[in-house]
Amino acid sequence: MADYFTVEKESEFTLTEKKSRFIGYIKPCESETQAVEFINLIKKKHSDAKHNVYAYVLRENNKQRYSDDGEPQGTAGLPVLEVLTKQGITDVCVVVTRYFGGILLGTGGLTRAYSAAGKGAVENSGVKLMTECNRVELSCDYSFYNTLQSIFKDYTCKAEKVEFLEKVEILLFIKSCEYKKFETEILDKFSGQILLKVVGEQYFGFEIKNIKGF
Known about the structure:
Elements: E1 4-7, E2 11-17, E3 20-28, H1 32-45, E4 51-57, E5 64-67, H2 77-86, E6 92-99, H3 106-125, E7 127-140, H4 145-152, E8 157-164, E9 168-175, H5 179-190, E10 195-208
Antiparallel strand pairs: 1-7, 2-3, 3-6, 4-5, 4-6, 7-9, 7-10, 8-9
Helix pairs in contact: 2-3
């Protein structure tokens, strides 16, 4: 199954441009039903606002939708959508609410403001790589733990749970295509003194920093 990028969590971002206030809201969504529910929730929350612009991108049926919600065509929903598509982000919905401040921004000003509100919401949420991973249980002596942590840094992996019991018990998510190399290194370096067992496979998210364009 293919890797993909999505956002880490629900978040928001606010900016003011010539007295108009733009509030960007973002939420991970895996279906059109979830996206529409989120849009309606924000519209209800800001029913007094003149515009509640939205855009969403979903893996479900490769669907993309946007709305200018009364703004000049192409100045609002499309710029927000392009923030998502240019970075390859999917399974996400963005709603940008605008409270008009009495000063016209022009088409260029609107495009820049809606783009900035959408981008700010994405940055505040954080972006993660979703990739197919092996779920691995490891058990090791305390004396091996620091060395094991240094090995983790060489792989796309995350210790989701660590318990310090009679031994150190670790639940690790590691990218499936890297597991065989990881297993070989662990067995060779520790001469079989670390026990590891694959207990499942699933998509797992790794936070991405410094993605181009962010």
